[in-house]
Write a structure and sequence with these properties.
The protein has 144 residues and is of the alpha/beta class. It has three helices and eight strands; from the N terminus they run βαβββαβαβββ. The protein is globular. It starts with 15 loop residues before the first strand and ends in an 8-residue tail after the last strand.
């Protein structure tokens, strides 16, 4: 006997993107200096959160988020990842050129800069935790 389920609504977008980094002080310096972001919320040694347009960029210390929450705290389950993550930020071709110039001026190495075979440009670089960051034109995925 099967379960009769109503069709699920499609998610309207991504609300949070998560990266992991053990040195949150270096992360705050990098994201402030490179992106001009101010933290939305900080829990010393545990996380730093940034509001980025209509989305949130959450950066957790993976060691701290593996610990179950204490009694009375928000019941967020333990989570975490090992190794580098990846985030791609949407940007126009003109914006990517400006970002490349800014990253070079700040001494942030560009690992790759190329045109995708089906169109659109990407540049790749890393944050202090080794997370792979990218700026790309949405048309690499056939989006406007």
């Amino acid at each position: 006997m099967g379960i009769d389920l109503k069709p699920a609504p499609r998610p309207s977008g991504v609300l949070e993107t998560v990266l992991y980094a053990p040195d949150l002080g270096a992360i705050q310096d990098f994201y402030g200096r490179v992106f001009g972001l101010e933290p939305f919320a900080v829990a010393e040694g545990r996380h730093v959160f940034y509001r980025y347009g209509p989305q949130m960029l959450l950066i957790f210390n993976p060691e701290a988020t593996r610990i179950p929450p204490p009694a009375g705290a928000l019941p967020v389950p333990p989570h975490g990842a090992v190794g580098e993550g990846h985030v791609c930020f949407r940007a126009s071709a003109d914006d990517i050129a400006v970002w490349r110039e800014r990253l070079e001026a700040l001494g942030v190495p560009i690992e790759a800069d190329f045109e995708w075979p089906r169109g659109g440009r990407s540049i790749y670089f890393r944050d202090p935790a080794g997370n792979c960051l990218e700026f790309a034109e949405p048309r690499i995925w056939g989006m406007v």
